[in-house]
Amino acid sequence: MHKKPGNFIFSVLLAVLFFCAVAFSAETLKSPAASASPPREVVVITVDGIINPVTAEYIGKAIARASARGAEALVIRLDTPGGLDTSMRSIVRDIIGSPVPVIVYVAPSGARAASAGVFITMTAHVAAMSPGTNIGAAHPVSMGAKMDKVMSEKVTNDAAAYIRSLAEQRGRNARWAEDSVRKSVSITETEALKSGVVDMVAKDIPSLLRQVDGREVKTVSGTQVLRTSGVKIVEQDRGLRDRVLDLISDPSVAYILLLLGFYGLFFELTSPGAVLPGVIGGISLILGLYALQTLPVNYAGLLLILTGIILFILEVKIISYGMLTVGGMLCIVLGSLMLFDSPAPFFRLSLSLIVTATLITALFFALTVRLAYRAMKKKPVTGVEGLIGLEGKAQSDITAEGGMAALHGELWSAYSDGMIGKGEGVVVEGVSGMKLKVKRALIS
């Protein structure tokens, strides 16, 4: 049998298309675009405030994300006056356990790595500083309750041993590290480089990456060689959640949130149904209580503030001729001064804020007392009490046996001890059930 020409041509076209597809696929697989690996990255984050639980969480997440991205390194741009010991130790543990090399870079010019910042810098796989920066003053301070001489010595010895261990692990100047704890010494970036406290001084991130290129570091994953030449720099900013939590962790903001919470709830309790003050007060109080767990709180100070608020509330209920208000103001001032009792200035409330908050609190409750007093003195306008004293007109003769009187467009059964003629003015003296006792209105 002979094949039809149409079938033969169709078979040839299919074969040509097949070989073209195979050739195109082969070229695609060979092309640089298909075989090129994704660009190498270095992740950069900025820590420029107090070391607290929010900061520790932020750094821990950044290390995890840099590891997940397969980044060459994580750079922590650091500027801190210090912070909480527990948060600092959490950060140190995260850096030590990081599979990604961590570079701590004290920057920009004018920045510092003080107190907890010294420990974090010493822990880094690479420690660097920018010109015009300083590092040191890592002596531990009491956060909250005062320490006696023995306890202070124990805490200092513990911190000195801890930082000496970190410095030795990274091959840095352990003697200076211990002096920064015991003697609160602080040095510039030039002195730190000469003393072996940091590994390099760099004016910016690109300069830093050029200097660390080819450097060997030891991580939990083993020895790694940093390949930072020509890498893509990825700036990883704090998310909205971290920024908000960091903001409310400021002692002044936490203090204001607590007071706003008390104001809102008090206003809602004294004026049920207002809703908005209660909602704002509840949210503010919850945020304030969250902030307290991130700060070194002296609970005696917090109790004094609560006592002051209670005294202001009692002033609304009890006429004390201002004594409860004075006591409340005194409690709030003393409690505010004690609330964040710490030698560290960044954990203290300013005196101007305390005085302003106390005066506003006293003014708020004084205004509340005034309004409550006026409400008590104001004549009732509803119910039985609201009828007494109202004037109306007799719609019929009113005697002791009865009659009718018109009040506010309503007709009421009424009686009187004396005779009141129809059309005369009447004044309500009392109410008995649904019957009014009236008297003749005086003619002015």
Structure description:
By secondary structure, this protein is of the alpha/beta class. The chain folds into three domains: 41-238, 2-enoyl-CoA Hydratase, Chain A, domain 1 (Alpha-Beta Complex), CATH 3.90.226; 250-376, no CATH class; 383-440, OB fold (Dihydrolipoamide Acetyltransferase, E2P) (Beta Barrel), CATH 2.40.50. The chain contains 16 helices and 16 strands. The protein has helices at residues 5-30, 32-35, 53-69, 85-96, 116-123, 149-169, 174-182, 189-194, 205-212, 240-248, 251-270, 276-292, 299-317, 323-339, 351-377, 383-387, and strands at residues 41-47, 73-78, 102-106, 112-114, 126-129, 134-136, 186-188, 200-201, 216-219, 222-225, 232-235, 391-394, 404-407, 410-415, 425-432, 435-440. Strands 8-5-3-2-1-11 form a six-stranded parallel beta sheet, sandwiched between helices. Strands 12-13-14-16-15 form a five-stranded mixed beta barrel. Strand 9 (216-219) and strand 10 form a beta hairpin. Helix 3 (53-69) runs parallel beside helix 4 (85-96), helix 4 (85-96) runs parallel beside helix 5 and helix 11 (251-270) packs parallel to helix 15. The radius of gyration is 39 Å and the shape is elongated.
